[in-house]
Amino acid sequence: MISVLLLVGLAVAVFVGFNIGGSSTGVAFGPAVGSGVLSKLGAAALMASFALLGGWTVGRNVVATMGGEIVPSTLFTLPASVGVLFFVGLALLVSNLFGVPASTSMTAVGAIAGLGVAAGDINWGVMGGIVSWWLVAPIVAFWVCAVIGRYLYPYLDVWFRIDRTEGPLFEYNRVASIPYPVPSATTNRRELISSVLVVVIGCYMAFSAGASNVANAVAPLVGSGELGINQGILLAAGAIAVGAFTIARRTLDTVGNDLTDLPLLAALIVEVVSASLITFLSYLGIPASLAVSATMCIIGLGWGRATRTVKVRDAAAAAVRGEGEERSESGEGGSKMSVDALTAEPDDEVQKIGEEDPDELQTKDLFDPASTGRVIMLWILTPSVSALASFLLFEFFPIYR
Hints:
Number of helices: 14
Structural class: mainly alpha
């Protein structure tokens, strides 16, 4: 018979996967749903399919790392596994209370590290490699998108500007009683290609989410031997699918509506860069945060767009002379860069760097360092608290024996 404790562990794993599905679906397919290219039902179906594919392929490496390489799998007794999963669920609660997308990956690793320290058996080499990538990945995400924003974004906007014409994107014809979609009379070729691109990138994002997040729900149970790796991936992917078909409808509304402040092209750049980075880390077996990378991509892309008003040599010369700071309030210069600069749509003729109007790229709602600091603090705080709480739990209640 299945023990009550195992049922509790399975319930917590399903809860974690359910919430991952609810949040990740909005991130992956919000642009497609918000622009009217894809329905919520279609987004949920694609999320379920590609999250399973990501977990079944690349995600195995992350499950292996979290289930037996940070600490020996022998420490994952059933009670210890449930304890670790409890802290992952607690991270989701903290995320909801503070309105900050706390990283379940980082929190889960923190809880596992706390278990290893309490037991005196942790692989510091593996742990050091993971933490190193946690520091490097957001920096890479920021600078890749900063370079794109400064040097490529205006050209990409001209070449791949995504516009919608009036009327539906597709119409349906029938062969016998079987319907099949065809582009409507009002749909032009550019709109059709861009719409397909939006959906394809959403599927890629869903693949990345599955690869990085499946382990968060089931790695301790797989490490304990209570679930086989195939069973664990199917359980996590099924829970993600349930979340995609239920609570994700609200997140899709939120993300789709919020995209009025983030152009569709910018959202797609953020998705491609962050998903590529996380997929690469998942291939290496590194549990990393998709939310952290995506947020740093948004900040980097906006900062890069805002810096187009100043040439590098001019900024350096002004810094040497001590100029620029006093002009920041008037929008004529300054060191504070605007994420809202992404909302400025370039003309068909791209202006050179240093020639663009600062008023077009910097709005009065400048990037708030205090808000960013609060987010980063919580990203650091949640895994730290998870590790400390896990250590105290397993130090005084050695349920891993």
